[in-house]
Each structure stands twice: as C-alpha cells, then as structure tokens.
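Posting this for the archive.
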Amino acid sequence: MRRQGAVFSSPRWCSSAPRPPSRRRPLARSPVILDNLAAINAVRGRFFTIFAGADANGDGNPNADRLGLEGRNSLEGPGYRSVDVRVAREFPLGGRVRGEVSLDVFNLFDRTNVRDLNTVWGSFNPNVAPIASYNTVRDVFNPRQAQVGRG
C-alpha cells in the first residue's frame, strides 16, 4: 500500500479495485501439466559392525563377537542416492467432477543402492586377511519402478 500522509490508500490491484478481465485460457483446455514433483534423496552410507565370524571370547556364540578391539558401527557402507518423480494431469469430466492421471517413477536413474553388506571378517585377529566375501553386497534396495494411477 502507498502512504499518503497519515492515510493509507489501496493500489489498483487490491480486491476493492476492479480487475481487468483475465486473458488466460481455462486450465481444463490447457496442455500444461498441473502437478509435477521430484524428490531427491541423498544419504551418507549406513554404518555396520565388523564381526569376527568365530567365537573369540569362548561364550559359545560365534555370531556376536567383533573383530579385535573394533567398536560397533566402525564400517561405513556406500551412500544412498535416489530421485523419485511424479507427473500428473487433471482434467474435467463434466460439471464439478474432475479426473486425474499420474505417473510415478521411483529410483529414476536406476542406481544400485546397498541395503546390507557382508561384515564377517573370518577371524578374530585383525592382522589376518579377511575372507573373500567380506565387505561385499548382501542385499540392495528396489531398482527403478514405475506406476500409473488414475483418480
């Protein structure tokens, strides 16, 4: 608003002033996509505990003993990256009724994102070389997926 002395006056474009007629075409006839969204997920790698794979402390449980004096969560896995996209189009069906068609694509670039690693060293001695399968991928998240929706 503009200030004129101590009185405020509303400019032309305020709701009290008449507006010029719109020159836009109605959205129902427009080929423009009405709704498009993208979600980008980028996360640092998850941390894993390195296990000995042998009963290092003699308690009868070889699955819980860590390698040497390594602490928990000392192995960082690869990072997670994903781009998810949604494209939707709304259109009239008659009267006040409207419909929508959408396409969702998850993991658009089809990146292999690691869910779990093999963290078994193969010995409780860190000076011994690890087994061949150590630090290899055990499980991955879903590859690229797409879905079409209507509503």
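The chain has a mean pLDDT of 82. The radius of gyration is 30 Å.
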